Amino acid sequence: MYLFLLLPLLLFTYASNNHLSISDYQLPLPKRKQHPSALSVVQISDLHNKSFGTGQIRLIKRIASLRPDLIAVTGDLVDGAPYRHAVTFLKQASQICPVYMVRGNHESLAGNFKDLEQELAGCEIYLLKNTSKDFQKDGYTYRIAGLDDPAFKGRDRKYAPYMKKTLEQMLRRQNSSKPDYQILLSHRPEQFHLYSRYPFDLILCGHAHGGQFRLPFTDGLYAPNQGIFPKYTSGVHTKNHTTEIISRGLGNSSFPLRLFNCPEIVHILIQ
């Protein structure tokens, strides 16, 4: 009898932590010249070494079905050693299209990122450590900048001044040509008020896990660096000229379960 009553709860818990949901967003592209076809962007965040089938087959198939032009990874693919599921994902994803990624705080905590980089040598993966790279489509230039996580500089607390200085240095180093659209990848969403001061059209972030535990009609109960009832855990936020999209992520870190918060693939059409 007790097992019969417990079964629905177990099934719900399994689905909450393994069903891959897709969130679709459409954003306008400034009409600065002849309008190109849409840019399809898939955002992946906070895998935390989670596996979605042998060889990450379920995750890769869902991404491939969206036919992305590029994949943006916003940190915390690993969660300590071993990191084979993260490596498998990146190798498979780079065969779909170019991958642009930044590191999160868990890449710093794991302490083995150099080993991971060596395993990925030769793949079409661009690790952005306070650098940017241009992507061309239909005559449009999309500049993708990546903000390295402050944890790599030992600044996991009171890091806003450091991130401000780093952003300004990164923008000064960019070439003088003006892109048609600027995207910033950063692991931490709570600094949106800072990012929106700069000429980025779109910010992609993760880190908050959607608040990990969510109740209906809430944005999550807790997020790192934001505390209880956090503001920036998922979805779309706008400020000034800038849009921030926050991924709820795919895996878990310090607590192994999600509630009303399925793993998420973010799909964005910029058109």
Walkthrough of the structure:
The chain is an alpha/beta fold and about 270 residues long. The protein has 7 helices and 14 strands. The strands form 3 sheets. A 6-stranded mixed sheet has the order 1-14-2-3-4-5, with no helix packed on it. It has a 6-stranded mixed sheet with strand order 6-7-8-9-13-12. The chain has a two-stranded antiparallel ribbon with strand order 10-11. The radius of gyration is 18 Å and the shape is globular.
Record keyword descriptors for this entry.
271 residues; alpha/beta; 6-stranded mixed β-sheet; 25% helix
List the SSEs and their pairings.
Blueprint: H1 2-18, E1 21-27, E2 39-44, H2 57-65, E3 70-74, H3 84-93, E4 99-102, H4 105-110, H5 113-119, E5 125-127, E6 131-137, E7 140-147, H6 160-173, E8 181-186, H7 192-195, E9 202-205, E10 222-223, E11 227-228, E12 235-239, E13 242-246, E14 264-270
Parallel strand pairs: 1-14, 2-3, 3-4, 4-5, 7-8, 8-9, 9-13
Antiparallel strand pairs: 2-14, 6-7, 10-11, 12-13
